[in-house]
Amino acid sequence: MFERVLVANRGEIACRVIRTLQRLGIRSVAVYTDADAGAPHTSLADEAVALGSDGYLDPDRIVAAAVRTGADAIHPGYGFLSENARLAAACAEAGVVFVGPSPTALAVMGDKIRARERVEAFGVPVVAGVSRAGLTDDDLVAAIERVGLPALVKPAAGGGGKGMHVVRSPGEVRQALASARREAAAAFGDDTLFVERYLDAPRHIEVQVLADAHGTVLTVADRECTLQRRHQKVIEEAPSIDLPAEVRERMARDARAVAESVDYVGAGTVEFIVPGGDPGAYAFLEMNTRLQVEHPVTEQVTGLDLVALQLHVAAGLPLPLAQEDVRVTGHAIEARVYAEDPATGFLPTGGPIAALGEPGGDGVRVDSGVAAGFTVPLLYDPLLLKVVATAPTRAEALARLTAALERTEVLGPNTNVPFLVRLLRDEDVRAGRLDTGLIERRQAELAAPAEAPDAAALGALVSWAREHAARPAGAWGRTGWRLQGVAASVYRFEGSAPVAVVPARDGLVVRAGDGPERRAAVTLHDEVAEIALDGVRRAVRWATDGRALLLLDGGATHRLVEPPPEALAAAGAEAAPELRSPMPGTVVAVPVDDGADVETGTAVVVVEAMKMEHAVQAPLPGTVEVLVRVGDRVARDQVLARVRQPVRSEA
Prior knowledge:
Elements: E1 4-7, H1 11-23, E2 27-32, H2 40-44, E3 47-50, H3 59-69, E4 73-75, H4 85-94, E5 97-98, H5 103-110, H6 112-121, E6 129-130, H7 137-147, E7 151-155, E8 165-167, H8 173-188, E9 193-197, E10 202-211, E11 217-229, E12 232-238, H9 245-260, E13 266-275, E14 283-288, H10 295-302, H11 306-314, E15 331-338, E16 340-341, E17 347-348, E18 351-352, E19 355-357, E20 364-368, E21 375-376, E22 383-391, H12 394-406, E23 409-411, H13 417-425, H14 427-431, H15 438-446, H16 455-470, E24 481-483, E25 486-491, E26 499-504, E27 507-512, E28 518-524, E29 528-533, E30 536-544, E31 548-553, E32 556-561, H17 565-569, E33 578-580, E34 585-589, E35 597-598, E36 603-609, E37 612-617, E38 622-626, E39 633-634, E40 639-644
Parallel strand pairs: 1-2, 1-4, 2-3, 4-5
Antiparallel strand pairs: 6-9, 7-8, 7-9, 10-11, 10-13, 11-12, 12-15, 13-14, 15-22, 16-17, 18-21, 19-23, 20-22, 24-25, 25-26, 26-27, 27-28, 28-29, 29-30, 30-31, 31-32, 33-40, 34-36, 34-39, 35-38, 36-37, 38-40
Helix pairs in contact: 3-4, 4-5, 12-13
C-alpha cells in the first residue's frame, strides 16, 4: 500500500479522501490555489502545497507537487482533473500512480461520442441521437430535425450537467447551440457538441462498478439520482426505487459490460436514463470514470469504503471481495447543500461563512469541506457539504434526513437548505413518484424565497441589543420616533419599513412602520440571539460581514442592509430601471448595442459564473444604456445596464 498520497482536489471530497488516508495510516498531501488558502482541507492534510491561481486544472503542476513531496500516488477526487487522460499519462511518465483508470479508458469514456459508439458495440442500449466528431452548427440543426423535438444538446466532453440545453422549439436551436458551445469551452476546453432525443419525465439511475487489474468487475448497488436541477443532481438515494429485480440485474450486467469495454480498473459509475413508464427500456447515458459525489449512499447501505477500495486496486492488489459478498441493507438518502439561491434560478452566492452548525445523531453522516470563517469562493462548484441519512426503510431515511437538514445552519451565503426541506416533504417525493422534471415543474413553490415576515423586527432587536450592551448606563442611543412618549431607537433596512425599538417596564416594544406594537425581549450571545416576539421564543444565529447584519432563521440567511443616507434622500427620485447582476461573475456576451431599442425580455447582458451562464433581460421596453463590456468582472448587484423610456408629453 502507498506511504503518501496527494489529493488533487478541494472541499468536501478532499476532506473525505484525507480521512480514509488517515484511517489507513497513509500520509496525505493537499493542494490549494490562492482562493483556497486556509481552506479546511489544507489543515486536515499532513502537508499542503500552493498551486498559484489556477493549479487545480494544471496536470503538470499537480504531478510536480506529487514528485516534490514524495507522493506515491495521486487521488483526483471528482471534477477538475479526475477524468483527465493527460493527468493519468503524466502520472505514468513521472512514476506516480494515478488512482483511477487507464488513460485509454479516460479518453474513451470522457468523450461522450466515442463512449456511445463503444458501448453500443458491446450490446448496451443507447439513447437515439446523432453523435460524431466535428458537427457544425448547421449539422446540429439538421440532426435536431432528424431526432425530433424535444432534443438535448450535449458537450462531447461534458459532465455535471454543464453545457447541456433542452430544445423544445425550432426558434430555440441557434441560441442553445451558442450557449452550449461557450459553456463547454469554458468548462472543458472543448466545444464539440452532439444531440440526443430528450425523454420527458424519465428517471436517472446509476450503477456503481469496481474493477481490478486481475479481471474482476463488480457492481456495487445502484442509486436513484432522478431529482435534479439544471441536469445536476440534488438528492440521491440507494438503492433505486421500485426497480423490478429482473431489470435491476440486467442493468447491472450492462454496467459490467460497459466497464469491460474499456478494460476498466478502479471505481466508476455507469449512468442510465430510464423511461418512467417502462424501466425495462433503459438506455446508457454515460460513464463517470471516477468517484461520484453521491458515493456515500452506496457506502452506507453496503458498509464498504469505496475510497479505500480505490486505493487497494490502484496499488495493484486484487479486490478483496466477490460479487456475492456485496450486500445491500437498509436505505440511504443524500442531500447536497450548496451556496446558491434557488429563488434566482440556483445562482451561486459565495462569501464568508460567519457561523456553521452541522447536524449529527443516529444514522446521520455529514461530509463537509467548510468551516466558520472560511470564505466560499465563486471560482468553484458551490457545494458546501453533504448530509446523508441511513435507516432500515426509505420512509425512515426521509424523515431522518429532513430533521437533519432542519438542524443544518450555515450563516453567511444563501444556501438551498430551505429548498431541500420543502423538496423532501413533497408528496410525490415521499411516495417515490419521481422524474427528472419534478423540480422544474415545482420550482416556483419549492424555490420561493424563505418567508421572513419578522426579519426586520428580529434584526432591529439584535441591533438594539448590540448597541445597548456597549452603551454606558443611562445612554439612550439613536432617537427619532417616540412610542407612548418614550424615546425609540429606529432601524432602517433595505426593502422593509423602519423599525422602532423602545424599552418598556417588562421588556421591549417593537413597531415596524405604521404596524401594531409588539412585545419583545432579547438576550444576545456571541453567535446566537434568544428572542421572544409576541410570546414566541426562538434562537436566531447572527453575525455581521462588514456591510450587513446576517440572521439565520428557519434555515435561511437574511441579509439586512442599512441604506446609506444618500440612498434614503433619493428614495423618491425618478430613475431609469436598472439591470443588476444576479451574481459575481464575468460578462461573456452583450447581445445588444448601447442605445438600441429593446423589448421586455430582451437579453441585454450575459454573465457567467461557475461555468453557468445567466442572461440579464430588459424588464420593460425602451432604449438601453449598456455599462459593461465583454470580459468585465462584475459584482453581485452591480448595475450592468439601464432601460430608459421616452418621456410622454401631455396633450
